[in-house]
Amino acid sequence: MTPNAYQPLTREQMAWRAAQDLVEGAYVNLGIGIPTLAASYVPPGREVIFHSENGILGMGPKPEPGREDRYMVDAGKNLTTLVPGGCFVHHADAFLMIRGGHLDVSLLGAFEVSEKGDLANWTTEDPAFPPGIGGAMDLAVGAREIRIIMDHTSKKGEARILTTCTYPLTAPGCVKRIYTNLAVIDVTPQGLVVIEMIPGMTLEKLQALTEPKLQLTANWQPLTPPEAPKARAA
Amino acid sequence: MIDKQVKTTADAVAGVCDGSTVLVAGFGAVGVADNLLDALHEQGARELTIVANNSGNGDYGLARLINSGRVRKVICSYPRSGDYSAFLKAYRAKSLELELVPQGTISERMRCHAAGLGGFFSPVSAGTKLAEGKETREIDGRLHVFEQPLKGDIALIKAHKADRWGNLTYIKSGRNFNPVMAMAADLTVAEVDQMVELGEMDPEAVITPSIFVDRVVVVGAQA
Protein backbone atom coordinates (compact mmCIF):
# COMPACT_ATOMS: atom_id res chain seq x y z
CA MET A 1 0.00 0.00 0.00
CA THR A 2 1.10 3.54 -0.69
CA PRO A 3 1.37 6.12 2.11
CA ASN A 4 -2.11 7.25 0.98
CA ALA A 5 -3.40 3.76 1.79
CA TYR A 6 -4.64 3.17 -1.72
CA GLN A 7 -3.21 1.54 -4.82
CA PRO A 8 -3.93 3.34 -8.13
CA LEU A 9 -5.02 1.12 -11.00
CA THR A 10 -2.56 -0.05 -13.64
CA ARG A 11 -3.03 0.79 -17.34
CA GLU A 12 -4.41 -2.71 -17.88
CA GLN A 13 -6.88 -2.37 -15.01
CA MET A 14 -8.14 0.98 -16.37
CA ALA A 15 -8.57 -0.56 -19.83
CA TRP A 16 -10.32 -3.56 -18.28
CA ARG A 17 -12.79 -1.32 -16.43
CA ALA A 18 -13.62 0.68 -19.57
CA ALA A 19 -14.08 -2.55 -21.54
CA GLN A 20 -16.75 -3.81 -19.09
CA ASP A 21 -19.04 -0.94 -20.17
CA LEU A 22 -18.92 -1.85 -23.89
CA VAL A 23 -22.20 -3.57 -24.63
CA GLU A 24 -22.99 -6.40 -27.02
CA GLY A 25 -23.32 -5.12 -30.59
CA ALA A 26 -21.65 -1.76 -29.96
CA TYR A 27 -19.42 -0.24 -32.65
CA VAL A 28 -16.45 1.21 -30.79
CA ASN A 29 -13.35 3.20 -31.73
CA LEU A 30 -10.26 2.99 -29.56
CA GLY A 31 -7.78 5.85 -29.41
CA ILE A 32 -4.04 5.29 -29.16
CA GLY A 33 -2.43 4.41 -25.83
CA ILE A 34 -4.40 2.84 -22.97
CA PRO A 35 -7.72 2.81 -24.92
CA THR A 36 -6.17 0.37 -27.44
CA LEU A 37 -5.69 -2.12 -24.61
CA ALA A 38 -9.44 -2.22 -23.92
CA ALA A 39 -10.04 -4.49 -26.95
CA SER A 40 -8.38 -7.32 -25.04
CA TYR A 41 -10.62 -7.08 -21.98
CA VAL A 42 -14.14 -7.34 -23.39
CA PRO A 43 -15.84 -10.15 -21.43
CA PRO A 44 -15.74 -13.53 -23.21
CA GLY A 45 -18.78 -14.23 -25.37
CA ARG A 46 -19.68 -10.55 -25.78
CA GLU A 47 -19.46 -9.30 -29.39
CA VAL A 48 -18.19 -5.73 -29.64
CA ILE A 49 -17.11 -4.49 -33.08
CA PHE A 50 -13.99 -2.36 -33.03
CA HIS A 51 -13.36 0.36 -35.61
CA SER A 52 -9.90 1.65 -36.41
CA GLU A 53 -9.54 5.05 -38.10
CA ASN A 54 -7.20 3.63 -40.75
CA GLY A 55 -10.03 1.67 -42.30
CA ILE A 56 -10.61 -1.47 -40.23
CA LEU A 57 -14.09 -2.45 -39.06
CA GLY A 58 -13.88 -5.60 -36.97
CA MET A 59 -10.42 -5.17 -35.50
CA GLY A 60 -9.26 -7.97 -33.21
CA PRO A 61 -6.65 -8.29 -30.46
CA LYS A 62 -2.93 -8.10 -31.09
CA PRO A 63 -1.57 -11.05 -33.09
CA GLU A 64 -0.09 -14.15 -31.52
CA PRO A 65 3.66 -14.60 -32.08
CA GLY A 66 4.24 -15.91 -35.60
CA ARG A 67 0.86 -14.59 -36.85
CA GLU A 68 1.96 -10.97 -37.39
CA ASP A 69 0.91 -9.27 -40.64
CA ARG A 70 2.58 -5.97 -41.47
CA TYR A 71 -0.48 -4.87 -43.44
CA MET A 72 -2.56 -4.98 -40.25
CA VAL A 73 -1.97 -2.00 -37.97
CA ASP A 74 -4.18 -0.12 -35.51
CA ALA A 75 -4.44 3.65 -34.97
CA GLY A 76 -1.20 3.61 -32.98
CA LYS A 77 0.56 1.67 -35.78
CA ASN A 78 0.81 -1.42 -33.58
CA LEU A 79 0.21 -4.76 -35.25
CA THR A 80 -3.34 -6.01 -34.97
CA THR A 81 -5.75 -8.59 -36.41
CA LEU A 82 -9.09 -8.82 -38.19
CA VAL A 83 -11.93 -10.85 -36.66
CA PRO A 84 -14.21 -13.03 -38.81
CA GLY A 85 -16.79 -10.64 -40.28
CA GLY A 86 -14.32 -7.77 -40.33
CA CYS A 87 -13.67 -5.69 -43.43
CA PHE A 88 -11.64 -2.81 -44.82
CA VAL A 89 -12.69 0.63 -45.99
CA HIS A 90 -10.70 3.62 -47.22
CA HIS A 91 -9.96 6.65 -45.08
CA ALA A 92 -12.83 8.87 -46.24
CA ASP A 93 -15.32 6.12 -45.35
CA ALA A 94 -13.57 5.34 -42.07
CA PHE A 95 -14.06 8.98 -41.08
CA LEU A 96 -17.58 9.11 -42.49
CA MET A 97 -18.35 6.39 -39.93
CA ILE A 98 -16.74 8.55 -37.23
CA ARG A 99 -18.13 11.97 -38.14
CA GLY A 100 -21.55 10.76 -39.21
CA GLY A 101 -22.50 9.44 -35.77
CA HIS A 102 -22.28 5.77 -36.72
CA LEU A 103 -20.02 4.80 -33.82
CA ASP A 104 -21.62 4.14 -30.45
CA VAL A 105 -18.56 4.86 -28.32
CA SER A 106 -15.06 6.20 -28.65
CA LEU A 107 -12.54 5.63 -25.88
CA LEU A 108 -9.82 8.29 -25.95
CA GLY A 109 -6.86 9.46 -23.92
CA ALA A 110 -6.67 13.04 -22.64
CA PHE A 111 -4.33 15.65 -21.21
CA GLU A 112 -7.22 17.45 -19.53
CA VAL A 113 -11.00 17.23 -19.18
CA SER A 114 -13.19 20.04 -17.83
CA GLU A 115 -16.26 19.72 -15.66
CA LYS A 116 -18.35 20.61 -18.71
CA GLY A 117 -16.84 17.70 -20.63
CA ASP A 118 -14.44 19.81 -22.69
CA LEU A 119 -11.59 17.65 -23.98
CA ALA A 120 -7.96 18.70 -24.51
CA ASN A 121 -5.75 15.97 -25.96
CA TRP A 122 -3.90 17.27 -29.01
CA THR A 123 -1.32 19.81 -27.90
CA THR A 124 0.54 20.92 -24.79
CA GLU A 125 1.90 23.86 -26.81
CA ASP A 126 5.47 22.71 -26.28
CA PRO A 127 7.41 24.61 -28.97
CA ALA A 128 10.04 21.86 -29.17
CA PHE A 129 7.56 19.29 -30.53
CA PRO A 130 4.90 19.47 -33.21
CA PRO A 131 1.31 18.94 -32.05
CA GLY A 132 -0.70 15.94 -33.30
CA ILE A 133 -4.42 15.63 -33.80
CA GLY A 134 -4.82 12.41 -35.75
CA GLY A 135 -8.47 11.39 -35.57
CA ALA A 136 -9.15 12.88 -32.13
CA MET A 137 -11.15 15.93 -33.27
CA ASP A 138 -13.27 13.83 -35.64
CA LEU A 139 -13.97 11.27 -32.91
CA ALA A 140 -14.72 13.92 -30.28
CA VAL A 141 -17.54 15.45 -32.33
CA GLY A 142 -18.66 12.35 -34.21
CA ALA A 143 -18.92 9.35 -31.91
CA ARG A 144 -22.22 9.17 -30.02
CA GLU A 145 -20.44 8.90 -26.70
CA ILE A 146 -16.91 9.93 -25.74
CA ARG A 147 -15.36 8.20 -22.76
CA ILE A 148 -11.89 9.08 -21.52
CA ILE A 149 -9.23 6.87 -19.97
CA MET A 150 -6.47 8.79 -18.21
CA ASP A 151 -4.40 9.07 -15.05
CA HIS A 152 -6.27 11.17 -12.53
CA THR A 153 -3.37 13.59 -12.08
CA SER A 154 -0.24 14.58 -14.00
CA LYS A 155 3.12 12.98 -13.20
CA LYS A 156 3.74 15.98 -10.92
CA GLY A 157 0.45 15.29 -9.12
CA GLU A 158 -1.45 18.21 -10.63
CA ALA A 159 -5.17 17.90 -11.33
CA ARG A 160 -6.11 17.06 -14.92
CA ILE A 161 -9.84 17.21 -14.31
CA LEU A 162 -10.30 20.97 -14.28
CA THR A 163 -12.90 23.71 -14.10
CA THR A 164 -11.61 24.96 -17.44
CA CYS A 165 -9.00 23.24 -19.62
CA THR A 166 -5.68 25.10 -19.81
CA TYR A 167 -4.57 23.43 -23.07
CA PRO A 168 -6.29 24.13 -26.42
CA LEU A 169 -9.49 22.14 -26.83
CA THR A 170 -10.01 19.13 -29.04
CA ALA A 171 -13.76 19.69 -28.75
CA PRO A 172 -16.02 21.42 -26.25
CA GLY A 173 -18.54 19.53 -24.12
CA CYS A 174 -18.06 16.06 -25.58
CA VAL A 175 -16.94 13.83 -22.68
CA LYS A 176 -19.57 11.70 -20.92
CA ARG A 177 -17.50 9.44 -18.66
CA ILE A 178 -13.94 9.46 -17.29
CA TYR A 179 -12.09 6.32 -16.20
CA THR A 180 -9.06 7.26 -14.12
CA ASN A 181 -6.61 5.20 -12.11
CA LEU A 182 -8.56 6.25 -9.00
CA ALA A 183 -12.24 6.51 -9.93
CA VAL A 184 -14.98 6.41 -12.55
CA ILE A 185 -16.65 9.80 -12.99
CA ASP A 186 -19.67 10.80 -15.07
CA VAL A 187 -19.94 14.24 -16.64
CA THR A 188 -23.54 15.34 -16.14
CA PRO A 189 -25.46 18.60 -16.59
CA GLN A 190 -25.42 18.80 -12.78
CA GLY A 191 -21.63 18.45 -12.64
CA LEU A 192 -19.14 15.65 -12.06
CA VAL A 193 -20.56 12.58 -10.36
CA VAL A 194 -18.29 9.90 -8.92
CA ILE A 195 -19.80 6.45 -9.44
CA GLU A 196 -16.85 4.26 -8.45
CA MET A 197 -13.68 4.68 -6.37
CA ILE A 198 -10.75 2.36 -5.70
CA PRO A 199 -10.50 0.76 -2.24
CA GLY A 200 -9.05 3.19 0.31
CA MET A 201 -10.15 6.24 -1.67
CA THR A 202 -12.54 8.75 -0.15
CA LEU A 203 -14.45 11.60 -1.75
CA GLU A 204 -12.35 14.03 0.29
CA LYS A 205 -9.06 12.58 -0.96
CA LEU A 206 -10.32 12.42 -4.55
CA GLN A 207 -11.59 16.01 -4.34
CA ALA A 208 -8.10 17.15 -3.30
CA LEU A 209 -6.79 15.79 -6.61
CA THR A 210 -9.60 17.29 -8.71
CA GLU A 211 -10.25 20.99 -9.37
CA PRO A 212 -14.04 21.19 -9.90
CA LYS A 213 -16.50 20.01 -7.27
CA LEU A 214 -17.22 16.28 -7.20
CA GLN A 215 -20.45 14.69 -6.05
CA LEU A 216 -20.58 11.10 -4.88
CA THR A 217 -23.59 9.18 -6.09
CA ALA A 218 -25.55 7.46 -3.31
CA ASN A 219 -25.10 3.97 -4.71
CA TRP A 220 -21.41 4.31 -5.59
CA GLN A 221 -19.45 1.10 -6.01
CA PRO A 222 -15.89 0.06 -5.21
CA LEU A 223 -13.64 0.07 -8.29
CA THR A 224 -11.98 -3.33 -8.11
CA PRO A 225 -10.70 -4.76 -11.40
CA PRO A 226 -8.82 -8.09 -11.32
CA GLU A 227 -5.23 -7.65 -10.12
CA ALA A 228 -3.87 -8.77 -13.50
CA PRO A 229 -6.75 -8.71 -16.01
CA LYS A 230 -6.70 -11.62 -18.43
CA ALA A 231 -6.36 -10.53 -22.06
CA ARG A 232 -8.42 -12.21 -24.75
CA ALA A 233 -6.33 -14.18 -27.23
CA ALA A 234 -6.40 -13.53 -30.99
CA MET B 1 -4.40 -0.34 -76.81
CA ILE B 2 -4.46 1.37 -73.46
CA ASP B 3 -1.42 0.59 -71.39
CA LYS B 4 -0.72 2.74 -68.34
CA GLN B 5 2.22 0.64 -67.19
CA VAL B 6 5.58 2.41 -67.29
CA LYS B 7 8.92 0.66 -67.01
CA THR B 8 10.63 2.44 -64.14
CA THR B 9 9.76 4.48 -61.08
CA ALA B 10 11.69 7.35 -62.74
CA ASP B 11 9.23 7.20 -65.68
CA ALA B 12 6.39 7.13 -63.16
CA VAL B 13 7.32 10.44 -61.53
CA ALA B 14 8.65 12.17 -64.66
CA GLY B 15 7.49 15.74 -65.11
CA VAL B 16 6.79 16.69 -61.50
CA CYS B 17 7.35 20.46 -61.24
CA ASP B 18 8.89 22.49 -58.43
CA GLY B 19 6.18 23.75 -56.09
CA SER B 20 3.90 20.76 -56.70
CA THR B 21 1.43 19.48 -54.15
CA VAL B 22 2.14 15.78 -53.64
CA LEU B 23 -0.46 13.48 -52.06
CA VAL B 24 1.45 10.81 -50.16
CA ALA B 25 -0.82 7.93 -49.19
CA GLY B 26 -0.22 5.61 -46.27
CA PHE B 27 -0.79 5.35 -42.55
CA GLY B 28 2.43 5.09 -40.58
CA ALA B 29 4.59 2.80 -42.70
CA VAL B 30 1.65 0.85 -44.18
CA GLY B 31 0.48 1.51 -47.73
CA VAL B 32 3.17 4.09 -48.52
CA ALA B 33 4.68 4.30 -52.05
CA ASP B 34 8.25 4.47 -50.79
CA ASN B 35 9.73 3.53 -54.17
CA LEU B 36 7.93 6.43 -55.84
CA LEU B 37 9.02 8.78 -53.05
CA ASP B 38 12.63 7.73 -53.60
CA ALA B 39 12.19 8.21 -57.36
CA LEU B 40 10.79 11.68 -56.68
CA HIS B 41 13.90 12.39 -54.65
CA GLU B 42 16.04 11.39 -57.63
CA GLN B 43 13.82 13.41 -59.96
CA GLY B 44 14.73 16.50 -57.96
CA ALA B 45 11.52 18.55 -57.68
CA ARG B 46 11.77 21.18 -54.95
CA GLU B 47 9.50 23.42 -52.85
CA LEU B 48 7.02 20.58 -52.51
CA THR B 49 3.85 20.67 -50.44
CA ILE B 50 3.25 17.20 -49.02
CA VAL B 51 -0.20 15.99 -47.98
CA ALA B 52 0.06 12.88 -45.80
CA ASN B 53 -1.24 11.50 -42.53
CA ASN B 54 2.18 11.35 -40.90
CA SER B 55 5.54 12.94 -41.62
CA GLY B 56 7.83 10.13 -42.72
CA ASN B 57 10.07 7.66 -40.92
CA GLY B 58 13.82 7.11 -40.67
CA ASP B 59 15.72 8.43 -43.68
CA TYR B 60 13.82 6.93 -46.60
CA GLY B 61 10.81 7.92 -48.64
CA LEU B 62 9.16 11.09 -47.34
CA ALA B 63 11.78 11.55 -44.59
CA ARG B 64 14.51 11.54 -47.25
CA LEU B 65 12.73 14.28 -49.22
CA ILE B 66 12.51 16.33 -46.02
CA ASN B 67 16.16 15.71 -45.11
CA SER B 68 17.19 16.91 -48.58
CA GLY B 69 15.28 20.16 -48.14
CA ARG B 70 12.80 19.45 -50.92
CA VAL B 71 9.72 20.01 -48.78
CA ARG B 72 8.35 23.51 -48.14
CA LYS B 73 5.18 22.50 -46.34
CA VAL B 74 3.59 19.43 -44.78
CA ILE B 75 -0.19 19.14 -44.44
CA CYS B 76 -0.84 16.27 -42.05
CA SER B 77 -2.85 15.17 -39.02
CA TYR B 78 -0.21 13.53 -36.87
CA PRO B 79 3.48 14.23 -37.49
CA ARG B 80 4.54 12.55 -34.22
CA SER B 81 4.63 8.97 -35.39
CA GLY B 82 7.45 6.42 -35.41
CA ASP B 83 10.96 7.78 -36.03
CA TYR B 84 9.97 11.20 -37.33
CA SER B 85 13.40 12.73 -36.66
CA ALA B 86 13.73 14.13 -40.21
CA PHE B 87 10.51 16.11 -39.82
CA LEU B 88 11.36 17.14 -36.25
CA LYS B 89 14.73 18.56 -37.29
CA ALA B 90 13.19 20.61 -40.11
CA TYR B 91 10.30 21.70 -37.86
CA ARG B 92 12.69 22.96 -35.18
CA ALA B 93 14.85 24.67 -37.81
CA LYS B 94 11.63 26.24 -39.15
CA SER B 95 12.71 25.18 -42.64
CA LEU B 96 9.26 23.79 -43.36
CA GLU B 97 5.73 24.84 -42.54
CA LEU B 98 3.25 22.52 -40.81
CA GLU B 99 -0.48 22.74 -41.47
CA LEU B 100 -2.12 20.47 -38.93
CA VAL B 101 -5.52 19.19 -40.10
CA PRO B 102 -7.82 16.66 -38.41
CA GLN B 103 -7.44 13.31 -40.13
CA GLY B 104 -11.02 13.04 -41.36
CA THR B 105 -10.91 16.62 -42.62
CA ILE B 106 -7.82 15.88 -44.72
CA SER B 107 -9.46 12.88 -46.37
CA GLU B 108 -12.80 14.63 -46.85
CA ARG B 109 -11.17 17.75 -48.33
CA MET B 110 -9.53 15.51 -50.95
CA ARG B 111 -12.73 13.54 -51.55
CA CYS B 112 -14.51 16.87 -51.96
CA HIS B 113 -12.11 17.97 -54.72
CA ALA B 114 -12.43 14.56 -56.36
CA ALA B 115 -16.22 14.92 -56.29
CA GLY B 116 -16.14 18.36 -57.90
CA LEU B 117 -17.47 20.15 -54.82
CA GLY B 118 -16.46 23.58 -53.59
CA GLY B 119 -16.00 22.69 -49.95
CA PHE B 120 -18.11 21.56 -47.02
CA PHE B 121 -19.24 22.53 -43.52
CA SER B 122 -17.96 20.20 -40.80
CA PRO B 123 -18.58 20.17 -37.04
CA VAL B 124 -15.00 18.97 -36.57
CA SER B 125 -12.74 21.62 -34.95
CA ALA B 126 -15.70 23.97 -34.26
CA GLY B 127 -15.00 25.91 -31.06
CA THR B 128 -11.27 25.13 -31.18
CA LYS B 129 -8.11 27.04 -32.09
CA LEU B 130 -8.07 25.33 -35.50
CA ALA B 131 -11.30 27.04 -36.52
CA GLU B 132 -9.95 30.55 -35.89
CA GLY B 133 -10.34 32.71 -38.98
CA LYS B 134 -12.56 30.20 -40.78
CA GLU B 135 -16.11 30.77 -41.92
CA THR B 136 -18.63 29.15 -39.57
CA ARG B 137 -22.32 28.40 -39.83
CA GLU B 138 -24.87 26.96 -37.43
CA ILE B 139 -26.62 24.00 -39.02
CA ASP B 140 -29.38 22.21 -37.08
CA GLY B 141 -28.28 24.05 -33.96
CA ARG B 142 -24.70 22.90 -34.23
CA LEU B 143 -21.68 25.02 -35.15
CA HIS B 144 -19.90 23.98 -38.36
CA VAL B 145 -16.64 25.14 -39.92
CA PHE B 146 -16.16 25.66 -43.65
CA GLU B 147 -13.42 23.51 -45.17
CA GLN B 148 -11.90 24.01 -48.62
CA PRO B 149 -11.36 21.21 -51.12
CA LEU B 150 -7.79 19.91 -51.36
CA LYS B 151 -6.22 18.91 -54.65
CA GLY B 152 -2.93 17.27 -55.52
CA ASP B 153 -0.79 17.89 -58.57
CA ILE B 154 0.38 14.30 -58.17
CA ALA B 155 -0.71 11.39 -55.98
CA LEU B 156 1.74 8.63 -55.04
CA ILE B 157 -0.25 5.44 -54.55
CA LYS B 158 0.76 2.07 -53.11
CA ALA B 159 -1.46 -0.72 -54.43
CA HIS B 160 -1.27 -4.50 -54.59
CA LYS B 161 -2.44 -5.46 -58.08
CA ALA B 162 -3.05 -3.45 -61.25
CA ASP B 163 -4.10 -4.19 -64.80
CA ARG B 164 -3.04 -2.24 -67.88
CA TRP B 165 -6.06 0.07 -67.60
CA GLY B 166 -4.99 1.03 -64.08
CA ASN B 167 -7.66 -0.73 -62.01
CA LEU B 168 -6.23 -1.23 -58.51
CA THR B 169 -6.63 -3.46 -55.47
CA TYR B 170 -4.99 -3.08 -52.08
CA ILE B 171 -3.93 -5.24 -49.15
CA LYS B 172 -5.84 -4.99 -45.86
CA SER B 173 -5.15 -1.78 -43.91
CA GLY B 174 -2.68 -0.82 -46.64
CA ARG B 175 -5.73 0.64 -48.39
CA ASN B 176 -6.10 3.65 -46.01
CA PHE B 177 -5.65 7.00 -47.83
CA ASN B 178 -4.79 5.40 -51.20
CA PRO B 179 -8.24 5.31 -52.87
CA VAL B 180 -9.18 8.85 -51.84
CA MET B 181 -5.82 10.31 -52.85
CA ALA B 182 -5.94 8.44 -56.15
CA MET B 183 -9.15 10.35 -56.96
CA ALA B 184 -7.87 13.78 -55.92
CA ALA B 185 -4.81 14.52 -58.07
CA ASP B 186 -4.21 15.71 -61.62
CA LEU B 187 -1.66 12.93 -62.07
CA THR B 188 -2.10 9.65 -60.18
CA VAL B 189 0.81 7.24 -60.14
CA ALA B 190 0.66 3.80 -58.53
CA GLU B 191 3.45 1.46 -57.54
CA VAL B 192 2.15 -2.10 -57.39
CA ASP B 193 3.35 -5.54 -56.41
CA GLN B 194 2.14 -7.16 -59.60
CA MET B 195 0.31 -6.68 -62.91
CA VAL B 196 -2.56 -8.95 -63.86
CA GLU B 197 -4.25 -9.46 -67.23
CA LEU B 198 -7.17 -7.20 -68.07
CA GLY B 199 -10.31 -9.03 -66.95
CA GLU B 200 -8.49 -11.11 -64.39
CA MET B 201 -9.49 -8.92 -61.44
CA ASP B 202 -12.87 -9.64 -59.92
CA PRO B 203 -14.82 -6.54 -61.00
CA GLU B 204 -16.60 -6.59 -57.64
CA ALA B 205 -13.24 -6.31 -55.91
CA VAL B 206 -11.73 -3.37 -57.82
CA ILE B 207 -11.23 -0.64 -55.23
CA THR B 208 -9.77 2.15 -57.38
CA PRO B 209 -11.29 2.16 -60.89
CA SER B 210 -8.95 2.92 -63.78
CA ILE B 211 -10.47 6.34 -64.51
CA PHE B 212 -8.48 7.76 -61.58
CA VAL B 213 -5.12 6.24 -62.49
CA ASP B 214 -2.58 7.60 -64.99
CA ARG B 215 0.59 5.56 -64.53
CA VAL B 216 1.42 2.19 -62.99
CA VAL B 217 4.83 0.76 -62.19
CA VAL B 218 5.67 -2.68 -60.80
CA VAL B 219 8.05 -2.61 -57.87
CA GLY B 220 7.86 -6.31 -57.04
CA ALA B 221 6.00 -8.27 -54.41
CA GLN B 222 6.89 -7.30 -50.86
CA ALA B 223 4.16 -9.17 -49.07
Structural commentary:
In chain A, the strands form two sheets. Chain A has a ten-stranded mixed beta sheet. A three-stranded mixed beta sheet of chain A has the order 7-6-9, with no helix packed on it. Chain A is built from five helices and 13 strands. Chain A has a single domain (11-222), classed as Glutaconate Coenzyme A-transferase, CATH 3.40.1080.10. By secondary structure, chain A is an alpha/beta fold. Helix content of chain A is 15%, strand content 27%. With 223 residues, chain B is of the alpha/beta class. Chain B has a domain at 19-100 and 151-218: Glutaconate Coenzyme A-transferase (3-Layer(aba) Sandwich). Chain B is 21% helix and 26% strand. Chain B has helices at 9-12, 34-43, 61-67, 85-92, 103-114, 178-183; strands at residues 21-24, 48-51, 71-76, 97-100, 120-122, 136-139, 142-147, 152-162, 168-169, 185-195, 215-218. In chain B, helix 2 (34-43) runs parallel beside helix 3 (61-67) and helix 3 (61-67) runs parallel beside helix 4. The two termini of chain B are 30 Å apart. In chain B, 52% of the residues are buried. Chain A binds chain B through residues 52-56, 69-73, 77, 82, 88-92, 94-96, 98-99, 128-138, 141-142, 168-172, and chain B through 27-31, 53, 55, 77-82, 87-88, 91-92, 98, 100-105, 107-108, 110-111, 122-130, 170-180, 207, 223.
List keywords for this structure.
heterodimer; A: 234 residues; alpha/beta; Glutaconate Coenzyme A-transferase; 10-stranded mixed sheet; 3-stranded mixed sheet; 5 helices; 13 strands; 15% helix; B: 223 residues; 8-stranded mixed sheet; 3-stranded antiparallel sheet; 6 helices; 11 strands; 26% strand; globular
Brief overview:
The complex is a heterodimer of chains A (234) and B (223). With 234 residues, chain A is of the alpha/beta class. Chain A is built from 5 helices and 13 strands.
